[in-house]
Amino acid sequence: MSADFIPAVADRRYNSSLDVGCWAFEVPSSMKIDIVTLFPEICHAPLDESMMKRAQEKRIVDIHIHNLRDWTTDKHHIVDDAPFGGGQGMVMKPEPIFAAVEDLRDGKQQTLNAERSTSNVQRTKIENRKSKVILMSPAGRRLDQKLATDLSNESHLVVICGHYEGVDHRVIEHLVDLEISIGDYVLTNGAIAAGVLVDAVVRLLPGVLGHEQSAADDSFSAGLLEGPQYTRPADFRGWKVPEVLLSGNHAEIAKWRKEQAMKRTRENRPDLLGRGD
Hints:
Layout: E1 10-14, E2 21-25, E3 31-37, H1 40-47, H2 50-57, E4 61-67, E5 80-81, E6 91-92, H3 94-105, H4 112-117, H5 120-127, E7 131-142, H6 145-151, E8 156-161, H7 169-174, E9 178-181, H8 190-202, H9 213-217, E10 235-236, E11 239-240, H10 243-246, H11 250-268
Parallel strand pairs: 3-4, 3-8, 7-8, 7-9
Antiparallel strand pairs: 1-2, 5-6, 10-11
Helix pairs in contact: 1-8
C-alpha cells in the first residue's frame, strides 16, 4: 500500500446534518457549505430532495444547517435587539453571528464522523479549506449565473441568513466577504434565499447534473435565455414540433436553437442583450 493511499471507512451513518442516510465513505467532499439560520427547517426541505440530496449522497458537497441560537449565551437565546437611534423592527445582534462564523470558519464544528474516522491527511485538507462568508441580504449584489459559477469554485461557503430588519452592520464590516440578494424584493427571512443560492451553486459542481453539458446550456450561461425545448409527441393537438428538430441535422439544430435563444431573450429579457459580461 502506497504512503499516500487513504483508506475509505464505510459505515452506516448520516453523512450531513440534512440527515440523508447512506453508506458514508470518509472522503472529503469537493465543497462544504454551512448555513446559519434561525429557521433550519426552511433550508432542510429544498436541500433534502432531488439533485441536492444526490449530490450529498455522492459526497460531492457536504451541507450543514445550523441554528444561530446555538451560539447564544443567555438562557433565553436572544439573537436580536432594538436598533440604536430608534426605528421599526429588531436588528440581529453581532455576538452570536460572530461566534457561529468563527467556529465554522475555523473548523471547530466538524462532524463526529470527521473527528472519529477521518485520517490525519484528510482532516488537514478539511481544516485548510479557505472559507468565504456570505450574508443573504436584499442590499447585496444580485445573484446571477456568473456569480453562482464563481462561487462553485470555492471550497467552503458559510452562509448567514438575515432576518428582522437586518444584521448589526459590524457583521458586514468585519466578518462578511460578500452580501448577496436573489432579487429586488424582500422575503420574510434569508433562509429562503439561502436555499436558492445553494441550489444554484451546487448544481454547477462536477457530477451533480446528469450530463456535464447541461449546466453550460442553461439560461444565462451564454448571456442569453435558453431556447424552447420539445419532447414527444411530435404532434399535440395540432401543434407540431419544429421540423428542424426532427431533421437529425445537428448543425441546423444548433443554429436554430441559437436563433430562438436570441429571440426569446429579446422578447423576455432585453436587458441581457449588449452586456459586456
